[in-house]
Amino acid sequence: MLKRLWPYMRQYKKYLWLSCACVVAETAFELVIPTLMADIIDVGVANGDKDYIIVKGITMAVCALIALLLGIVYARFAATAGQGFGAELRKDEFEKVQNFSFANTDHFSTSSLITRLTSDVTILQTAISNGVRPLVRAPVMLLMALIFTFTINAELTFVFLIATPILGIGLFFIVRKVGPLYRLMQSSIDQVNTIVQENLNAIRVVKSYVRGEYEEEKFETVNENLRANSEHAFRTSVWNMPLFQYVMYGTIVCIIWFGGQMIFAGTMKVGELTGFLSYVMQILNSLMMISAVFLMLTRSLASCERIIAVLDEIPSIQDPDEKETIVKTGNIDFDHVYFKYKEDAQEYVLTNINLHIPAGSTIGILGGTGSAKTSLVQLIPRLYDVSEGAVYIDGKNVKDFSVEHLRDAVGMVLQKNVLFSGTIKENLLWGNENASNEDIEWACHIACVDEFINQFPQKYETDLGQGGVNVSGGQKQRLCIARALLKRPKVLILDDSTSAVDTATEASIREGLATLKDTTKIIIAQRVSSLQHADNIIILDDGKIHAIGTHDELLKNDSIYQDIYYSQMEGAGL
Q: Could you give the C-alpha distances from 50 to 18, 32, 35, 57, 272, in angstroms and in order?
């Protein structure tokens, strides 16, 4: 599985290999030190040769200094490799999410995607930055230390033949147990992110309803769940340490016992036993590092699975092999369209929709809550694909168009108005980054943005704040309409996007839109007054077309339209 992510290391391979080389060299210099120390005891001290002791001591200091410098260089290379890998992986994962359709995004919660882009990637890049050293150092140290111990005394080395299987069996059970716990812990982080995100997005609602304590209780529940799952995971993994300490101290006791017997028998020197014990400590430390690497890889695999799930998600909406690239007129047809959000859903959201919308016309869509008005218009720019039937633009199936071009030709102002951090002009240029000042003024005039833009001292350079907090709801809607107009779309869809403006401003916007003779305009609204001037009004009821006609025709013949109209007129009279 980790091999699946190896291509993201492509640009940083040299830093990874250089860090590995530094670890190997550092380990080699460290392993020379116990041999030098043994020589000092057995030769220098035993013979009283001060010059020999000084030379060997200086050599030891030089080896230690070189090892230190190599460790510093390793840290630099490993950090570069790890952070670079994380940046490439995060970038590709983000690009993948950008290509998701709404159906793909529905497979993951927003908070889960954030965790997979941040926490999970951080775990992997930390595993590289901090894991290269033990991963390379431990086997090299283990192998070289074993060679040195065999050189000093082969008989004592067989003590490890008993200790190693104990360590291996213990590590196997720990890793087997802790793997699922790490995955559960990352899922708990998703839940915490969900509560935090919801609370911050709806902070004004929370404060206005004085529900701070309720939100705190919700957060405490998921936070406690994360704490419990984390503790369980780390409590299980921490058994690694006492297991190794038990085996390590038991091994040392055995070696001292048998080594002491050999010294008394004259088959081993004190310096040799001292050097042997130094190598034993290094061997045991290397085994401990290997176990830590296994635990680190276990946690990395849990994050790796979650990241790969995003990378392997196949976008449900893809470009055809042969693309149509031009929407010429904006003529729209729905041909026996059925739609449901999930394939396994029992009921369709839209049922047998047959509809013709002439190019350049203005069409209104009216219906009760849940009548699938938004679902209908989302099929035109392929935010979702139809389940059955087909949607045509200019006589061509929308699936035959390039997704990028199709959506560029369809301007859509969503039900939920979204502005981004930055200035008013920067937000407007989302519609057309090459728009001139004249284009911006034209769009703002039609959307009645020019009615309030002069209230701001900096006008188009006014900073909107995060999510457009510095403007009102009605101003947000008008800015979003202007942004869509800058695309010069062939099809313009307004999904209840004038609900927050007053009737006079709405009438002005409607008059401005009427001048767009070459644009097909589809307007979803709750107010009859917003639609009564449309060429045709579509009445949706429970995902089906109930009636189509002009205002006068529907008022005369359709019961649903009559109910809506007279209830609104009565409300207006009150």
A: 39, 20, 18, 10, 20
